[in-house]
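Collaborator request, handled under Task 6.
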Amino acid sequence: MVMLTIVSIWAAAAMVLLIFLAVKHKRTYRKTSEIMEKIIGGQKITEVPFNEAEYSLFSHQLKTISEKLEFEVGRADAEKEQIKQLISDLSHQLKTPLANLMMYEEILDSDGLTEEKRARFMRKLKAQSEKINWLLESLFKMTKLEQNVITFDLFEAGIKDTIRSAVSAVFEKAEKKNIRVCVAEFEDARLLHNPKWTAEVFENVLENAIKYTPECGKVEISLERLETYSMIHFKDNGMGISKEEIPYLFDRFYRSKRAEQTEGTGIGLYLSKMILEKEKGYMTVRSKAGRGSVFTVFLQNC
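Structure tokens returned to the collaborator:
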């Protein structure tokens, strides 16, 4: 009889426990379902309504899933905006050279062109094709730098060879305008940089100096050593830049109103700024309208 009573008590206790667990798990399931619906709906989960002592790991995992999904959605939206911006930039920047390309093709297809004129328009056609290729490469390079897709090594290297490479790249353009590019005598300095990418920075600065300096002008390159950094100066006697425009020079696609009649894209200095940031360097400019400019690149000493 006693044994039967004990069994009855244990059976009743087990039944109560099962009922309690069923109710509790039903409540847990309902709460979990509500949270998952919020996550699916894109709502931010700031608090999970579970007893932390019993469900701390479960609560943490749900919040982590919510935060990760929110991050991924945000990144996808940002990438979508970057793609839209890139398409817009491509459309804007390519409109003129593509129109020129089509025009030159029509002219070359016409009858009655002399060999001299045909050769001249072929050169123009080639120049526009090269410009389109440069634009595409620059825009994609810019986007990859912005997204940190491009990485490059920094190492100790002599700056003279890097300067020489950039000067060689712009020599023909300078020669066409009879502009002298003079490099001051200085002892070679071994600086922390990537010669290939830094040469591109120098080339961009030199191209701008040549572009906005009148014929028979001069561009001077010099080096100045400081304790932590070395400064590479690029001085020209060109059209200069007004004080109001200087803060915007390194913005994406910025072009001075005074330079609207001069061919350009507003990409070079922006690209240069991004490259130097990856090299832990930077660039400054001093200028006055009508009195030339001095662009200074700062690179770390080794």
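The cover message to the collaborator said: "The helical segments are 2-40, 52-109, 115-146, 159-176, 195-211, 268-278. DSSP finds six helices and seven strands in the chain. Please let us know whether this matches your experimental observations."
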